[in-house]
Amino acid sequence: MASKWRKVKIALGLNNCLYVPPNDTEQPDSSSSPSPAGLLSHSSHGSTTPTPSSFGLRLSKSPNNNNKRTCAICLTSMKTGQGHAIFMAECSHSFHFHCIASNVKHGNQICPVCRAKWKEIPFQRSVSDVTHGKPRTSALGWPQDDAWMTVLRRLPPARTDANRHISSHYQANEPSIFDDDEDLDPQHETAEGKESTRDAGDVNSVRTVEVLTYTEVSAVPKSVSYDNFTILIHLKAPLTGGRQNRNQNHAESPQSSQDSRAPIDLVTVLDVSGSMSGTKLALVKRAMGFVIQNLCPSDRLSVIAFSSTARRLFPLRRMTETGKLDALQAVNSLVSSGGTNIAEGLRKGVKVMIDRKWKNPVCSIILLSDGQDTYTVSGTSVTCPRADYKSLLPTSIHRNGSTGLQIPVHAFGFGSDHDAASMHSISEISGGTFSFIEAEGVIQDAFAQCIGGLLSVVVQELQVNVECLHPRLEIGSVKAGGYKTNIMANAIMGSVDVGDLYAEEERDFLVTVNIPVDGTSDEMSLLKVSCAYRDPMTKGVVTLEEASHVKIQRPEIAGTRVVSIEVDKQRNRFRAAEAMAEARAAAENGDLARAVSVLESCGKALSETASTQAGDRLCIALCAELKEMQDRMASRRVYETSGRAYILSGLSSHSWQRATARGDSTDSANLTQAYQTPSMVDMVTQSQTMVFGTPSSQRKLRQTMSFPAVRPRPR
């Protein structure tokens, strides 16, 4: 074996080593030859130092160090003795040979780690590449067409239209109708069928929405009327099956984790325009790698890349091991060039969703861009700052549109040059969230937070209904942020269309009523709260006919008035969101002084409320958030650079009561603590502790993250 190996190196004339797994019949002599795990990248004819002409496949001198390496393409460890060749590029970064060879085959000539442009690339010959039906052989008798043989091919001069080459490759294979999506996981369909046959009571005991109500005060004297009496309706989604097992100290296997949640159809629409070159695109690829790694075989993914035009990299594919590898290789083949056509990217992403033959229970689109659409949106002005933004999103997925399709677009504005107003509008119209990624290094954590929620959907199509129980009672208003509300003409009934909830996610709505004078009884029934929703796992409808019955006491004499902290802090949240919207409107009209004044006044008012005085975390965070927004309105330049995006991301978060990523200020590390779910926390933690070549402790990650609020139960 040792003699054969030396002959191969001499014949190749390169400082490269290619580890070929030994046959069962071959036993290498450890005394005369190094073991496969100890093969070094050297020869008797050259230096051991890598040079531009001497990069190739090699194994590390130190097995321990090699075991810690991770292939940046497939994100798995590179260990010797597993039958995988390891390729070292001229920039000294290593990959699995089959990963990098396939990556190069897609046209990429840049190192996925350091973005260095290679002068030579690995090229894996096909086994079918034969001459007259017979495999070619080398002088040593080894088949040159064997899958382990590699050829280093000198690259031609760089082309300015490299992106055009890849674009035409994918567009040439695109059908007119995207109905080529892969079939759903049959194992999941079987599990779904079994789940749907379970007893309804058993299902509801595990996956039932919790409904709590709080009144502004617990008692109103009989002889007193009370206008705009506030009632808080609090909802909390159930656990996923996997988290429930963990809470009960049951071991959770990867398969049980997959079976305990609803699978997703996810389309990512990625900006690869010229401004995304270098570090930005590298970090997006890494973030996409993290997303792909955390999808299960029952999940399906499609990736759309857009610049001046848009292309579908591959159809909706199940994320099996093969599907993940193909997805990683396609993502790593991306190069940046051209303009920014967000509308075309979204059009193609929505088309993937609409044309699909099969549908997973959950679906969503993730949009990322660092620029402004220069192809669709017409010029804006101070008097018309939102001109044509609706035209960026196909009308078929407008949240309150006539089609009924619910496909939220979660938009991520990257850097200081993106069009925050358009990205916020896209997310708002579709029912998604808008995140502002100010620092490049937090893109993966922002994606992690988003998919942490998407991979934990436990409630769909949730609708909350309220009905007055007293004959003289009427509903005055229903405050629900961005959610659609409806009050019947007689003001006796109202509803809120909530939609999807992630596991353990919370929602709070305020209902006001006018309480009349009533001397007939010592207790008054106010409202009945009910809700109905669809369980995405069973596809069955769960109905809670009387989830909560709201009552108050009607004593003869008024006692000490004690305002509910829960109601007070939610009123503060709505007040803060209204102030943010008013300040943003003033800033867009050029009046930054008024914008700052509105935020300052609101912060002062909040600081004097009972909940803030009691040290409530949400209220303290709201005051700090308002102060942060004031700082980002210090000047027109600061507002244009980061203030607008920061405020819009905050409005998106408060509107949907859902976590978003905002900025990179360490001073705002504790803002908006009430919206992030445990599943999001788990995914972000996994992202931050993941090692990609450098210790996680060296990563400078500064992002606004939030934690679930601790809520006392009503007495």
Automatic annotation (TrEMBL):
Amino acid composition bias (Basic and acidic residues), ranges on this chain: 185-201
GO molecular function: zinc ion binding
Domain RING-type, first and last residues per copy: 71-115
Coiled-coil regions listed in the entry: none
Keyword flag Phosphoprotein: no
Domain VWFA: 265-451
Low complexity composition bias: residue spans: 30-54
Sorted UniProt keywords: Metal-binding, Zinc, Zinc-finger
Region (Disordered): 24-62, 163-202, 241-262, 692-715
Biased composition (Polar residues): 242-260, 692-706
Keyword Coiled coil: no
Matches recorded under InterPro entries: CLCR, Vwaint_dom, VWF_A, vWFA_dom_sf, Znf_RING, Znf_RING/FYVE/PHD
Protein name per Swiss-Prot or TrEMBL: Zinc finger family protein
Organism for this UniProt entry: Salix dunnii
Biological classification of the source: Eukaryota, Viridiplantae, Streptophyta, Embryophyta, Tracheophyta
